[in-house]
Queue: 4 jobs
Job 1
Amino acid sequence: MRDNLHKRLAALREHILEADIDALVITNPTNRRYISGFTGSAGILLVNATCAFLATDFRYYEQAPSQAPAFSLKKGGNEIAKLLPQMLDDMHASRVGFESVHLSYADYQTYIQAAPQVEWVPTTGLVEDLRVSKDGAELDLIRQAVALTDTAFTEVTPQFKQGMTEREAAWLLESFMRVHGAEQMAFDIIVAGGPNGAMPHAHPSDAPLLRGQPIVIDMGARVQGYDADMTRTICLGPTDNTFREIYAIVLRAQQAATAALRPQMSGKEVDTIARQIITEAGYGDYFGHSLGHGAGLDIHERPRLSQSSSEILKPGNTVTIEPGIYLPGWGGIRIEDFAVITETGCEVLTKASKEASIPGT
């Protein structure tokens, strides 16, 4: 992993040079972790062509050197911004970039007051551009997170019974993943039965799971910072004609988009493949979200597979493919796999069954 961190730092330095700035302040926690390896909850990075500083507070003085050996530790107490003038002087920096999407206005004012001698330059995406394609170490962790998610779904859903609440079902899934290696969930698990499934981001409630209703399950483990994301829609007992019709359409859209997914496509092109199938079946108005998104250290990151995305897919991108149809008063069907873009197409990492009926229920 340390070799990868050195490569990331070198690549960032090239981006800093291209951006025509002397140094970059990194405040976003995910970007901070990606570049340095530091996982603490507080701190800033300051990077230029030759220096790399990590400023943090007392809680992390022991942790920081072991996690971020390429960075010189600056001890800042509770007012890290006060370290900026000396760090910038040490770098001879006069034109300094900051992460405009992530730095609050209040913190921006603090930085200006702490170091009025420099020109503060807003930047966008200098670290995120590096994070879009995953390296081998990242893919190994993502594979672990996806495999754990698959196993949890396979082992736990046969325990679902009529009358069990959505909340109880979600906890069974979460507790299995935590016991078997997840540091936490990638996001709050969704278990949404019947009409609740018509809400794409429903929260588990005390509503009981009932036989014959669609149950949307959206879940993902986090392993050493990296997220998985998977959705399956199941049914306790036999499915009815509506379920089978909607399920078949969504599955066809999901499979078609997956089969087409390859480098040099735009996010919009992939989204259109799935959306056209659903629209031609008469349900276009009931598929209101994008086809998918990138995931890694954040559960939602670039690239996006959507009607507004012109970003070109590249090998190493990790994306979800998750079309859905949501009918108010009835419920929803969503099917989601996690895939990595390869040199010639994509590799689907998700292996969990797409069989809708749970045996024995």
Note: Residues 136-156 form the longest helix (21 residues).
Job 2
Amino acid sequence: MQLPLSRRLLLASAAGASLPLPALAAGQDSATMGWPSDVPGWDPTLRFAPDAQGIYKMVFDQPLTQSPHLKLIANVVTKWQLAPDGKTLDLELRPDVTFHDGAKMTSEDIRYTFFERVKSGENLDISKSFRTLVGVDTPSPTHAVMHFSQAFPTAPVWLAFLGSFVLPKEYLSKVGAAEFQKKPIGSGPFKLAEYEINARIVLERNDKYWGPKPALRRITIEIIKDPSARVAAIQSGQLDLTVNVPVREAQRLGHIPGLASELDPITRIILLQVRNDRNFSDENVRLAAHHAIDKAALSKAFYGGAAVPLSLPAPPGSPGYVPGFHFAYDPKLAMQLLAKSGYGPKNPIKIGFDTTNGQFPSDYDMARAIAAMWKKVGIEADLKVIEYAQYFELNRGDKLPEATLYSFDNATGDPEIYAGYLLNPHLPFSPWKDPVLGKRVVAQFTVTNEAERIAGWKKIEEDAVNMGACMPLLQSVITLVRKKNLSYTRYGNGWVLGQTFRWT
């Protein structure tokens, strides 16, 4: 059985004490994860939070999902067909899916989740991703047809992405949104058994799950925001698996008997989210800020060289990647650009700069390094630490500073969900509100010809970087430390799913 996290063990381990890992009990059927942030709530359609995606996927089902290599595959929806004009999506559902209360999932639940709740006026983030949905027909319990006001070529992709979890119409309508947050039910492989906000999530296996049953009966998720505390907990044996610890610590922990560590590139990208106003209204200043950053040095210093430097908001191997495009590290050019606008090391321009601390590996340390690079050329950054949850509220409220260090999630790899959502001024995901570039971005969402669609996004990516609207830094990596005899399935987008855990 898993013991509660011990303060003594955490402090001793943090101080460098060598503590033996607890022996694995024979037939153990549970595991404890250390996670850097809590879910924003238990309605997975309400607020988009990328780091909660894997947790939600343990409790709720999505219409479609992805393979470990990110191929779009069936889930509770077995067949899907997007019309040539991109305005109709035909869905066939499994007939044997039940929610945790025993009620069958039907096409009415699809209609309720994606259309009826939004139409009733509920303020859900899913209303942004499916903003063009104008109706859902339900010809039979296993057949649904989505209708869009304009072409929506990435509709199938979104059915496996943020917020797209099927909720039970009958139960949610009966208990209401507030009660659902307290006692949520889905149709996923686990049920929520216990929850203490910002502290602990306990999931119990759903033995009536329609798909492959999890090998483990219980998954406990300890919310540990401090990366050093996660390091201490995995080293002391109080955790079986944890993520997003500093790279050096992951490498060190990998040499401890009984532990294994991994450093895996994923589809997320580390970038600076930037505004087009305040002291970043000057293109010279924005471009200088970008040219002043030595991305290769950041990768080497903080990710052991594993994080690939990026010039565009698209990692290598993704459809939007442009191999020949390069944005140079050039501090001399940065100083020349600043001088054109009257700034330099002796007369620096001041900007706000936000970062998280421990949300992804080495985030705060990297932000400090960037601020130091900027100072050398004539940019003085007021560096502030914000909570992960704060980022979303500040972004929605248009209150982020000139630059914010952030790891942007795109589990799908599609260029629309990189450039499109980073630069669409009408959506709450981007602090960049320029209407000229925004008009091009909005128009590109409706292109249905696949070759033209990808080419269009590539051109937007290049233009956005060249005007300082987007400052990609590195392909993100996930650091993962686990007990050697706990196996799991790796996903190219960084999902860590308890239903794939198995003791060996």
Note: The first helix runs from residue 7 to 14.
Job 3
Amino acid sequence: MTSHNLPQGMVRAPSQPGPHEGYIPGFGNDFETEALPGALPQGQNSPQKCAYGLYAEQLSGTAFTATRPERTWCYRIRPSVKHTGRFEKIALPYWKTAPHVAGDVISLGQYRWDPVPVGGTPLTWLTGMRTMTTAGDVNTQLGMASHIYLVTRSMEDEYFYSADSELLVVPQEGRLRFCTELGVIDVAPREIAILPRGLVYRVELLEGPARGFVCENYGQTFELPCRGPIGANCLANPRDFKSPVAAFEDRDAPSRVVIKWCGQFHETWIDHSPLDVVAWHGNYAAYKYDLRTYSPVGAILFDHPDPSIFTVLTAPSGQPGTANIDFVLFRERWMVAEHSFRPPWYHKNIMSELMGNIHGIYDAKPKGFVPGGMSLHNMMLPHGPDRGAFEHGSTAPMVPVKQDNTMQFMFETRFPQHLTTFAATEAPLQDDYIDCWDSLEKKFDGTPGVK
């Protein structure tokens, strides 16, 4: 079934009309989908002969013996060994990988940036990636990197996959389309997309210019957090995640495939599109999620709970209770706590916190933290409200107040985040950000009973 909304020549599996058109709902499910009837074998994974002359191939995201293996069986026109040739190294100088420590950059500090301007240079998903911070070590599959992406044109006969990481994409302006081996995902601001390690895709610009944020996860894949006493409902519900139905291209054209491997980039040339998976089944796939479906929970009597209650996705580490990465969302919500300081309190944290503003005003920093901007509060560095937010939070009437028209997020990791040279010298760093605490006053009065 060919849709006029898809790239010319791409065939997609039929799906039910309605809110899930083009997608399959659910998180981590074992899905099955086929773009041609009967292309998906039943009762076994690797028959002696596949329908339509297809090749059976498995894509594994975990070790075979993992507690819950993540893998997908693909039925494709050519095996993927035909989608690469001899490799040549190429340079993408703005995309950095941990361990990366710029010798003349001080990462110890509280930093904030204005939005990185798109500019007038033609930029694709690859040439427009700008690394802001790195953490951990890609060679040990621990840690992450944070990036800004700037896209002004589509990738044409060009494809990419990362052997290093899965990518969490957070659009802030413009709309993108990810044409992947397993189907098509469209994303816009207030949505996110996850692109698994090893999955081949092409990025098209649907509406631009496009700008957004990327968390590159070197470690275990993102999963839903354990809700603990919260119980079975609220936060991000599995039914709101969507994976694409099968879609494929049977197209002969000189094509460039770029691969990221251990922080280095390589290109290879083939004579056809590698997006040739006609059918697939499994639990290792790209997916998207609408952040507006996130149901926050919070204090309904007193005190300000930990920001962990706002976790959308978490990538676990080997240490229980300490994430490799948490993806945290601050969206519209009611503030109702009585006789309490409602904004985020001052704190010093073992986790490193990189924040981005999708739209609106953040209650702890009502000035200077603008949509498209970022901030970094590295591990064990104190931070918290500026004076205006403190004074307001200390004196505001204790009546219900809705934080409205706002959406920010945080990439939080147990590793220190190191600034790149781009973040320190080329990105629009707010040199005066640290001064936002200068006007905080000493209010101490030793008189008994004085508040």
Note: The radius of gyration is 23 Å.
Job 4
Amino acid sequence: MAAKTMRIQQYRSTIGQKSTIKTVVKHLGFRRLNQTLERPDTAAIRGMVAKVPHLVRIVEDSSN
């Protein structure tokens, strides 16, 4: 059984954001702008993405 994953992309910079917002983006694994990552579709990752919807978007949600 394959684990559910989702692809997320950072489309805006963290310049000028609070340090807590920068930390969330860093812990998601982003290193540069317009980077796309594949992460497990868990409640923790969804919560982190929900904290920074103005910087990060869900590109693809493969919930097979």
Note: The mean pLDDT is 93.
